[in-house]
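Model it.
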Amino acid sequence: MKKKIIVTGGCGYIGSHVVVELQNEGFDVVIIDNLSNSSEAVLKGITAITGKQPLFERLDLRDKALVIDFFKRHHDIIGVIHFAASKAVGESVKLPLLYYENNLNTLIYILQELQKKESSNFIFSSSCTVYGQADTLPITEAAPIKEAESPYGNTKQIGEEIIRDTCKVSENLKAVALRYFNPIGAHESAKIGELPIGTPQNLVPYITQTGMGLRGQLSVFGDDYPTQDGTCIRDYIHVVDLAKAHVSALKRLIKGNNTQNFEVFNIGTGQGSSVLEVIHTFEEVSDIKLNYKIMGRREGDVIAAYADTTKANTVLGWQAKLNLKDALSSAWKWEQENN
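Modeled.
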């Protein structure tokens, strides 16, 4: 049976972990990446872990002619897992057109090629940002989609709408959008992990870099929220658990077990952890006291968000197995190996 899968953005943080899980399950992977926010060195890590080097093409998906040519050459693929996108919330506010071009045009060009095939399977990297500050917690897939707080968040909402509309008119296309909560951690081998370029935008790499002494101080934005310790609450999921969810979703589509052409699933742990809880758990696993300072609230931060994962647990047969300690230990090991 043909088992060739394209992973766009496969040299990135989540993409590289998904490539590892796909190869471990016997899939043949072709990575497309323009390396704008990643490194080709990641391929060595993937190969070291799995014993198999994925095919790699450096390609900018914004070039429609190159996308058409790529799909002609790889006509035997059975699915696409799509990560390639710009992802910094703050940057998207400053550069909205770059985000709309990069995150939406590329999606459209890929779907246009998949529409031409007899059958194809598509997994979309979506986000819990589509819910904004949810009315009730935990958040189910039925929660209303709120007006996006940023162009980045808006591209995830519009992306889902584009896929839904395409699936309505394309009998041959089956798709799943996975709405991630907050991915953290690294592969247990410490051969791949989160590699932020410049100042980290996310909490955990900032924590580990502060632990290494690369950052002088960690800022905690707000301690006056209506939560148990006043800091924001998020659902932090280990990236390896998240990667496995993609394989479960892909297998569901390949086997034809989907009940609709377009399905959405929340991917999280179902547990909320506050910023201070994450800091103190890191201090516990690393035996390092972090230098952190409480600052004013940051614009656009929701108070609390954590997933109801019942649908993914029951329908996909997937569930998160690793906890906050596991994730922070692996992130710390990765940081130490890389510095």
